[in-house]
Write a structure and sequence with these properties.
alpha+beta; 4-stranded antiparallel β-sheet; RBP11-like; 4 strands; 131 residues; DNA-directed RNA polymerase activity; Gyrase A, domain 2; 41% helix; 21% strand; protein dimerization activity; transcription; single chain
Length: 131
């Protein structure tokens, strides 16, 4: 096994391995723990911070149990109006939409800047004096 193969194992799911699992947290009402495999602080912080902004979420937090194990736990407690799973799914869908919009805006801005720096195409050497 090469070192490249080991790196891929950090983020690729194995056969039959589930990305996310939910376990109700019995000591608190309307509370669940979500185990997310092959992820780290990047996703944990992003999702938990957006969960905290949800109007029906009372508490959200995450932890990475061990730095060498690529998984994290996110705990979510809601006010009972919706389930923790519904809040989790809603926040994830919202984040996907926001990142899609960011991608579209980035592409648009990139294309506009590319066109602006290309200069005129009338054979005079362009906006940079032929360089």
């Amino acid at each position: 096994m090469t070192s490249d193969t080991c790196r891929f194992e950090l983020f690729l799911l194995g056969e039959g391995e589930k990305k996310i699992g939910e376990t109700p947290f019995p000591r608190m009402s309307n509370c669940s723990d979500f185990l997310i495999k092959k992820e780290d602080h990047t996703i944990g912080n992003l999702v938990s911070e957006h969960l905290k902004q949800h109007p029906h979420v009372l508490m959200a937090g995450y932890k990475v149990p061990h730095p060498n194990v690529p998984e994290l736990f996110i705990r979510v407690q809601t006010d009972g109006t919706i389930t923790p799973k519904d809040a989790f799914v809603e926040v994830c869908r919202d984040l996907i939409g926001k990142f899609a919009q960011l991608g579209r805006e980035f592409t648009r801005e990139y294309e506009l800047r590319r066109m602006a720096t290309a200069g005129p195409s009338n054979g005079d050497g362009g906006a940079n004096g032929g360089f």
